[in-house]
Amino acid sequence: MIRFFDFLFSLLGLIILSPLLILLGIIIFFENGSPLFKQYRVGYNQKLFLLIKFRTLPINTKFAATHLVSNLSITKLGFFLRHTKFDEFPQLLNVLLGHMSLVGPRPCLPTQRTLIIERKKRGIFKVRPGMTGLAQLCSIDMSTPKFLAKTELKMIKKMNVYYYFYYILKTFFLVLKK
């Protein structure tokens, strides 16, 4: 049932938001030269997939986890995109393709070994990674791998259609509040 909602909402989101996505892509292109950032992440069953986001860092920035990147590296438009979460809208394509869900654990980098070990211990990779979830709503980043994995497990154990919509709506209102 959740996969059906993922497909439906990501398709509708891409259609409805396409004018905004195109406009942001053009603006980012003129600011930065390349509007999209693509990076391999660890997903469902520990399979790698290519995550798509709007670029918020200069093209030549070294790949690293978000919590390890200096705020000085973020472009002017990148601050706005990250604050409003608009940088993540291209991930709707990842959701549509089945690489991700709207709700789930954030996909990690293949180099985040400690986090991968903690997630593997708890079976986190048995679900699709998501654009939002309990850890994001609680502002838990990947710098605390064990705590993050435990929080994600709490979410996964309770996950059903009710919590799916709860996390989506809570994220929506949190972004509006900002």
Describe the model:
With 178 residues, this protein is mainly α. It has one domain (2-177). The protein contains seven helices and four strands, in the order αββααβαβααα. The chain has helices spanning 2-32, 76-84, 91-96, 113-122, 134-137, 145-158, 161-177; strands at 36-42, 48-54, 101-103, 130-132. The strands form two sheets. A two-stranded antiparallel ribbon has the order 1-2. It has a two-stranded parallel ribbon with strand order 3-4. Helix 4 (113-122) packs parallel to helix 6 (145-158). 28% of the residues are buried.
For the sheet with most strands, the description reads: 2 strands, antiparallel
Give the overall silhouette: globular
What is the number of helices?
Answer: 7
Structural domain count? 1
The average pLDDT score comes to: 92
Radius of gyration from the CA trace?
Answer: 16 Å
Structural class category: mainly alpha
Low-confidence stretches: none
Distance between the ends? 31 Å
Give the proportion of residues in helices: 40-55%
Q: Summarize the helix and strand pattern as letters.
A: HEEHHEHEHHH
Proportion of β residues? 5-15%
Beta strand count: 4
Strand order of the largest sheet: 1-2
Task: List the SSEs and their pairings.
Layout: H1 2-32, E1 36-42, E2 48-54, H2 76-84, H3 91-96, E3 101-103, H4 113-122, E4 130-132, H5 134-137, H6 145-158, H7 161-177
Parallel strand pairs: 3-4
Antiparallel strand pairs: 1-2
